[in-house]
Amino acid sequence: MPRFAANLTMMFNEWSFLDRFDAAAEAGFTAVEFLFPYEHTPDAIAERLMRNGLTQALFNLPPGNWGAGERGLAALPGRFDELKAGVMAALPYAEATGVKRLHIMSGLGSRDDQGVFEAYRNAVIWTAEKLAARGIDLVIEPINGRDMPGYFLNDFAFAERLIRDLELPNLKLQFDIYHRQVLHGDVTVALRRLLPIVGHIQIASVPSRHEPTCEELNDRFIFAELDRLGYDGFVGCEYRPRAKTLDGLGWFAPFAGERDRFSKTTGAIL
Ligand SMILES: O=C(O)C(=O)[C@H](O)CO
Ligand SMILES: [Mg+2]
């Protein structure tokens, strides 16, 4: 049974950010993810995780000026110092939450521009090495250009090549099934092939990005396939509820008891 993580940036928006942890645990989730924790203190986030017996599955490194349209700094030549400062600022959050993987967003830029490519490659190498020393994986996620026009990392084959070429043991792929389907399709065969380099998975229905199990893909088949493949990581529920979050959790009901299957202290499957 997949280990689902509620995405607290998109789900449970009926609650204030910190109260979303309580609401997600109450709904049966054992893990959470979100885009950015940086408006809150590391201690405040850690306290909510602890109080609710939740595991922090993932969050993103600082993305630059999000409000001004920036979507990461890694591929932006001339912003390396800022990127490094962002990584250092994220470390106290990683330590407080115990998260084992962080997502680095590439930012906007052309993959055909050599300077942009080199900036991205260098930023990924530097960050992966910095996180390796702390036992944390770095994940990179191809994102489709309809949702994020101009995003540099918009191709699974490119991400795979980079990960395989760099041979950094803690550099992995964030396989967002929604983006994969929009970009290329062939979700199941790609999962089978790429699983050895996958560090995190996310799910939403295609094309609406609402609750899974109701549109283009047979999500239940994919969940079963993840079990068949022995995937033991998290599946982030990165979807925008169609209406109220709790009203849309019918798809999750068969999985909501999963918290009893994991040891709260070790995370081991019981
Ligand atoms: O957009 C996505 O799919 C993500 O996972 C990013 O972290 C945020 O945009
Ligand atoms: Mg995603």
TrEMBL record:
Pfam families: AP_endonuc_2
Keyword Electron transport annotated: no
Keyword terms of this UniProt record: Isomerase
Gene3D superfamilies: Divalent-metal-dependent TIM barrel enzymes
GO molecular function: hydroxypyruvate isomerase activity
EC number: 5.3.1.22
EC top class named in words: isomerase
Top-level taxon: Bacteria
Domain Xylose isomerase-like TIM barrel as annotated: residue spans: 21-253
SUPFAM superfamilies found in the cross-reference section: Xylose isomerase-like
Family of the protein in this entry: Belongs to the hyi family.
Protein name: Hydroxypyruvate isomerase
